[in-house]
Specification:
Radius of gyration: 23 Å
Shape: globular
Helix content: 40-55%
Strand content: 15-25%
Order of helices and strands: HEEHEEEEEEEEEHHHHHHH
Structural class: alpha+beta
Distance between the termini: 23 Å
Low-confidence stretches: 1-18, 178-182
Mean pLDDT: 82
Largest sheet: 6 strands, mixed
Length: 377
Amino acid sequence: MRQWLWLFLLTSGILRAHQIAEMSMSLELSGDKVTAVIEADAAYMLPELRGDEDEEPKDLAWLREQGPDGWARIGRETEAYLKDCLRFETDGRVLPWTLRIPDFEQQAPPFLGEGEPEELPMLDVVLEATLPAQAGRLDVAWKEPFGVVLIATTGSGEAAETTPLVSGERATLAKREAAAPSMQPAVPSTGRWVGLGFIHILPEGVDHILFVLGLFLLVPKWKPLLQQTVVFTLAHSLSLAAASLGWVSFPATPVEVMIAASIAWVGLENLWQKELGKWRLGLVGAFGLIHGLGFAGVLAELLPADQPEKLPAALFGFNVGVELGQIAVLAIAFACFGWLDEKRFLPVKRGGSVLIALAGLILIVERIGGIELVPFL
């Protein structure tokens, strides 16, 4: 098998996306009562549908068709799933919680008459717990089999704090002051933003991985590649910060189409360019600005846009994670192909560039038409 086919197999293996990437949880602390509301995809709660990359997303029409028996099963499976993935702790001790799904408590669930049939089958899942009188803090541990990120929000308004939890992480979401009867939100660490930035490249950033591999295929040398990735990161940092602060705003679809076009362009350009020119850094910077707008669309709910003083730490950590993710992609590419001499690397460059250009063109069609042609892109 030709070596460039291995590049395709490598990227397609890395780029496979989970059925869902994130799950949101709002946490309210009132006295000794803990209430968490999780926005859950009802279909993802069923083990036979969970994490299946080839499974078509279910919609509200599907949820309506399940009927009382199906809804009861979704409730049981939701509780089993969350007991496996989510744990509340206080001062090192597990804090038990109870679960209820308000929609299922009604004889005629609201989703039967509310919402369009093609909408996602989202349910509010309510977890309730009682905090011991002497508890000093509330911790949350999250471990999800398919790498779904838990986005935990505590507080409201200007006091709101958002903490992304990657699978396998735990965090202190609230601490009780000695003289205060209530809990105060804990500030998320920069390290958590680093982890979130990394996973938005590996394994979730299909388009960004393709773009970085396109840079690798033109000149597989560390120094020029690091220069390009640093320029790319600085550029998307500027546009991401501007979008997060509300200084610029673009519709999501045109931005996603432009990102796909940048991937196609890099792949095609590799076919006639033989060496790296100064123009490439400028082009990479321009594409970085576009990709930053794409990051802003994905992370709109995560970054504290209404609290500008908290943005620097969040953006710094996230962008460091992105840069580390890009370096990890390059390290994998070098491990697979960096040892080849120029003659043997040429078919890898040509074949890989054709595949990247083709992937970019497919993404353009998918994003303009709102369709899915290739499941792992």
